[in-house]
Amino acid sequence: MKTVTAFFTTVFAASIGMATSTCAIAASFTTSYDCATATASVEKLICRDSQLAQMDIELMRLYRLALTDEHSVPLPDKVLIDQQFWVEERNQCASESDIKACTIRSYAKRAHQLRQGSAIVRTKDPNRLTEGPLAFRCAGLNALLAATFFTTQPGVVYLTWAKSAITLNQVPSDFGTQYIGKDFQGSYSFRQDGNTALFQKPGSAGMSCTAEPTG
């Protein structure tokens, strides 16, 4: 009886161990680095978060393409250096009150920079998770509005105009694709439907925007 009991105890313990291992695997998403050896807090967060993991994989794709573009701005050797500084800057999000929001902003801004600087990076890869930057002319805004999109789940848009920039997160919408967010100045919204959009920033009414023709 003791032998039988010991056998079932061993089997039960093994089952628990397998279940725990399965849960651990399920909780870790594929990233551009080895999650098993990740030490930075932000890297560990990315490994546990599907949206961030998608952004990480896509950004590495963009970065590798930029390194192959002899006409990128900046040139590939500078892109490499900038990427190293960017990783350090991204990891500093660990000191922010909202680590995930900071990390999303970091990825969105870097994706915008890489796509803006290289035609090769903007290649229409069928598996891409980024679009843009697209230029919108908005009534009442004295500068073009540039929009770079992360088509993750949920999506993200990085908007920049003049010397301002904001990262907005996608929310459910019955009409078009809507993004919202805020900074120290207040709340922003951006609703896109094809080549038209409605942009609202703190202290102003919604501005109608039309996409500029792309080359």
| Number of structural units classed as domains | 2
How large is the radius of gyration? Answer: 22 Å
Topology as a string of helices (H) and strands (E): HHHHHEEEEEEEE
Percent of residues in helices: 25-40%
Query: Kindly state the mean pLDDT as a whole number?
Result: 88
**Unreliable spans:** 1-26
Query: In which order are the strands of the major sheet placed?
Result: 1-2-3-4-5-6-7-8
Commentary on this structure:
The chain has five helices and eight strands, in the order H-H-H-H-H-E-E-E-E-E-E-E-E. It folds into two domains: 35-117, no CATH class; 130-211. The chain is an alpha+beta fold and 215 residues long. Helix 2 packs across helix 3 (50-66) and helix 4 packs antiparallel against helix 5 (99-117). The model is unreliable at 1-26 (pLDDT under 50). The chain has an eight-stranded antiparallel barrel with strand order 1-2-3-4-5-6-7-8.
